[in-house]
Amino acid sequence: MVGDVGVLIESAIGGESISSTVEGRERYPINLRYARELRDDPEKLGRVLVPVMDGAQVPLGQLADIQFTAGPSMIKNEGGQLVGYVTVDMAGRDIGGYVEEAKKAVAQKIKLPQGYTLSWSGQYEYMQRAKERLIYVIPLTLLIIFVLLYLNFQSVAKTLIVLLSVPFALVGSIWLLYFLGYNLSVAVWVGIIALAGVAAETGVVMIVYLDEVYERRLRQGSMSTMEDLYQAITEGAVQRVRPKMMTVAAIIAGLLPIMWSHGAGADVMKRIAAPMIGGMITSTMLTLAVIPAIYALWRGRGMKGEGNS
């Protein structure tokens, strides 16, 4: 009896395929069900007759309560357990900050029944995975840069002076990201990692220029006072102005079209380019002003030590 009622409801409301039509190479099913005005009214559905075993027909309304009830469009499960999704659109908000606030609000206002679990998925889950990888990737990147610089200079002091360009470059990146309203994301971190390599490269060239002038004057015997050191550093730094400005101008000119681009993938590329553009500006100021000053302090200590001895 219950099966007969189910078949009748399925045929009357959902419809039943009774045949198919062939039109050339195309085939379409023929579905038979009640007219819309009959299946949209619970009272009319209640008058549908259900045949029983003795041949009699009983109205459906006497066998079941017919009413409209809101329910899920489909039942989903994960790991063998029923699951329900709540989708949130966070326009203009960073995912990490929003989820942290939402976690606190849920913990304060909602007490989950026994057997229920709550998990935060979607882009937040992807961001957490990327964050876990970046915890290892960023220190490893800095370590590789340090090792390569040390192998090139054979000096810890010169290596540390060059690495100072990285935090100065980050200052410009953070300023530009704040001005554009970009949040920290995987794409932004990719741009920062690329910026670290470029900033270290420009710092290396500055140290090479300063060392070249310093060693040349040292061989000529014209490096005995601090004034001689300042003149040597000024000469080396001035020679670096044109190559540095050409390098920065070329990099920024190549990245600016990305900031003005539109279409698929443009949002990701903008977040990679933004930290590099902002970082190159402050990195230029560091390379041309701060690195020569630190180089003078470092070399000056050695000269004072030699004078005292």
Mean pLDDT: 80
Instruction: Report the sheet-strand fraction.
Output: 5-15%
Fraction of residues in helix: 55-70%
Distance between the termini: 110 Å
**Number of strand elements:** 6
Q: Return the string of H and E elements.
A: HEEHHEEEEHHHHHHH
> Measured on Cα atoms, how large is the radius of gyration?
36 Å
Q: Tell me the overall shape.
A: elongated
Which regions contain 5 or more consecutive residues with pLDDT less than 50?
A: 305-309
Query: Tell me about the biggest sheet?
Result: 2 strands, antiparallel
Estimated structural class = mainly alpha
Strand order of the largest sheet: 1-2
The number of distinct helices, counting runs of at least 4 residues, comes to 10
Quick overview of this protein structure:
The chain is mainly alpha-helical and 309 residues long. Helix content is 66%, strand content 9%.
Sum up the structure in keywords.
309 residues; mainly alpha; two-stranded antiparallel sheet; 66% helix; disordered C terminus
What does this structure look like?
The chain has helices at 2-14, 36-39, 42-46, 95-109, 123-153, 156-163, 165-180, 186-220, 226-259, 266-308; strands at 16-23, 26-32, 49-51, 57-59, 76-78, 81-83. It has 309 residues and is mostly helical.
Write the topology of this structure:
Layout: H1 2-14, E1 16-23, E2 26-32, H2 36-39, H3 42-46, E3 49-51, E4 57-59, E5 76-78, E6 81-83, H4 95-109, H5 123-153, H6 156-163, H7 165-180, H8 186-220, H9 226-259, H10 266-308
Antiparallel strand pairs: 1-2, 3-4, 5-6
Helix pairs in contact: 5-6, 5-8, 6-8, 6-10, 7-8, 7-10, 8-9, 8-10, 9-10
